[in-house]
Structures are given as C-alpha cells and as structure tokens.
Amino acid sequence: MSNSHSPQNPTLLLVSATGADLEAYRGYSLESLATTYDVVLICQAEPTWERAFIVDFEVADLNSTHALSQAGQDLAARHDLAGVLTWTEWYLAPTARLARHLGLPTTSPEAMDAARNKASARALFAWHGVPSAASRTADSPREAALASATIGYPVVLKPAARAGSIGVIRVDRAEDLPAAFEFAFAGARDGSESTQVLVEEYLDGPEVSVECVTHCGTTTAVAVTRKTLGDEPFFEEIAHSIDAADPLLPVVAPVASAAVKALGITDGVQHVEMRLVNGRPRLIEVNARIGGDMIGHLVHLATGIDLARAAADTACDQPPNLTPTRRAAAAIRLLYPDASGTLTRRQLNPTLAASAPWLERVAFQRRVGDTVLLPEDGGNMFSARVGFLITTGESAKDAQANADKALSHISLSVRPQHAA
Q1: Do 164 and 238 contact (CB within 8 A), yes or no?
Q2: Is residue 381 pLDDT above 50, yes or no?
Q3: Has residue 191 been placed in a domain?
Q4: What is the CATH number of the domain that holds 278?
Q5: Structural domain span for residue 112
Q6: pTM, to two decimals
Q7: Are residues 32 and 115 in the same domain?
Q8: How much is the pLDDT for 168?
Q9: What is the C-alpha to C-alpha distance for residues 39 and 299, in angstroms, rounded to an integer?
Q10: Other CB atoms closer than 10 Å to residue 53's CB: what's the count?
Q11: Cα distances (Å, whole numbers) of residue 258 to 132, 225, 252, 284
C-alpha cells in the first residue's frame, strides 16, 4: 500500500504495534507526526485507524530481527527515509539496530539494550554516580531471599526487562517472598528479552517522572509528571498531573540528565522515573521513549511542547523545538473497577460532558461484557484498566480537582468473578 507523498515533508519510518488500545494512547502522537512527516509504518498486523496518518506500510513479525530488517529494507527501497522511530518499549533496541542497518541516525543499540535491562542500567548508574537503588538479580526464590536479606526489607521485586509496572511488587517480610517472586517471575516470563527478576531497595517517597528530550548528547528536561499510585504491594499508576510552573523541575532535571548520559543515550525522548527520598531524587529507571498513559499529551496541554514531534525530529537528526508556548496544567485519571470481574456498565454523565470545558477527553478501552482483572487476581494494569479521563486547569491543583469532579460523574460496574 502506498499513498501520495507531500513533497515538502521528510519521510519517517515508525515501528509500532497496532490495535484499538494504541489508538487511544498513541493516536495523538501519530496525528502530530503526520502534520510534518510522511510516515511509513512497520507493524505486526494490517493497520486500521493508522491509515489516515501514514503513506505506506509493511506487515512484519516485530520480534524477528530478520523480518524487521527486511521490512525496513523494503520501505527504504520505496522511500527516501530520514529517520526511524518507535514509541513501543519492547522495540527500542531492535529499532536502533534497524536504523543502524539502514545507515540512519540513531542512539546506539547498546545504549538501548542498557536502558531496557534494569540490571544493566543500575550498574551504569552506580558507575557514573547517579543516585539509584541498591539492586541484585535473582533467578530463583532462594537467590531472591539472599538478596533481600542483604539489601534489607522492605524490598521491591520486578522483572528485569518489562514496563508498565508489570510484575512489580513490594515485599515486607521474608515469609511473603516466595509468592512475590512467582508474581514477578510470571511478569518476566511473559516478556521476550529476559526472565531475570530484580530484588531492589524500596525507595520510600513520592514518585515522579521527568520528561526529557536529548539531541546530540544534550538533554533538556521539559516537564515533571507527578504520579499517584494505587495500594501497595503493587505499583499501579492511577493518576498523573503536569504543571508547567512546577518548582520541582530544576531539582530533578540534573539527575534525569545524568541518568540519560550514564546509559549512553544521545538522541530521543526519555521518560525518567524517580522517587524523592527525603526530598532528594533517586532513580527508578529510564524509559527511552515518550511516556505512556498520555503523558506526552499532558505535556502538550500544559506547556505547548510537542514530544511526539521532538522524538521524530531527533530521530532525523534535526534540532527539536522545545520552547514552551503555554503555562497551564493537565491531569489524567486512569479508570479501574473496584473488583475483578465482567464489566457491566461504563458511562459518563452526558450532562457533564456538555458543560465542562476543562474535561479534555474521556476514553473507554474496555467494553461491556469484557473481563477486567486486577493484579491481585492475576491481571495487570492493562487487563484491569477500563479507560481514562483528562482534565485541564490553571494549576495542577485545579486540574486534579477537575479530575475528581469528572470521576464522580463516571459509572463503572462489574459482576465479580465469584458471583454466580
């Protein structure tokens, strides 16, 4: 398939999964890219909603190095490619290898491998003096127990190469460790890169992420995302907010930049997660792509900075435009049911939708009749989430208050699993 090109637009190769959930969470990014770039896509299935924003595509097994390489060569034969980009965590290193194979600009695949493997990242943070958490790898419950005894309880167990809080759990007591290891190992086993489990020091303090853009080795922190987490022992993120005037930005920016540099990342957008322990930033991890949960969209609503465009520009070795054009705030509330089961109702009060200019959007990703599973019942944030809502305001406090108001007008009901 090949659509008409815009002669003035460079051509960008995007590697991405497809699906309805991706439209809800990455549609804004692809729409932004299409205003400036002719986008060609490599995806694992026939594109659907993406067709409005792309000029060509190839279907390939994204987990196969050979298939990805062949698809890239086929598109390069039909188009003069300027760069290669992915915003999918699992494809960061393969996409960097593809860019190198095609002779296009890229952060080194080795740096992307280090960012993807949390054990490698921890070692690099320690080597470069970036404040992080004590960490040990464990291949068995016995190794996890030894590591936990060395680090000291409470500890956090997590897969070495997953994302989205999958398989992440806090453990307070030695007797809870075997079940926690199985939970973390199950998350690791579902991935394609590593089955290792990490045992890490628990960082006690509020969690934030720093949204960064790196070009030619220089990193600029453009926004701080304040996070709200669900009940422990799990680390599900249930809300985020961004304020263009957040005074925390100059505090966390140097640590975020040091972490990006320690990994060897030279170009792209980074979502750098950390916790503030006694007011001081300590690194959790660096995700070498635009943050999920619509965080890039929140940055745009709050500051006017377009992270999707910045990611494309840096992928094509062009300087990104990081000049703020807004000074506002935005918040997202992720919608979860109270219990696992069958979704029987999901509805927004239509009166609110018509009378709240601060309600930017409400999106549902699960339909009535779908099964939703919370982590304690064997699910994860993706299987449990019903949708999200986004609100705006003059400050983060205003945006969060509006989110609370909107949430009170949303009805979610499930028929519990144990019900007949």
Answers
A1: no
A2: yes
A3: yes
A4: 3.30.470.20
A5: 107-128+203-327
A6: 0.91
A7: no
A8: 87
A9: 23
A10: 19
A11: 11, 18, 10, 13
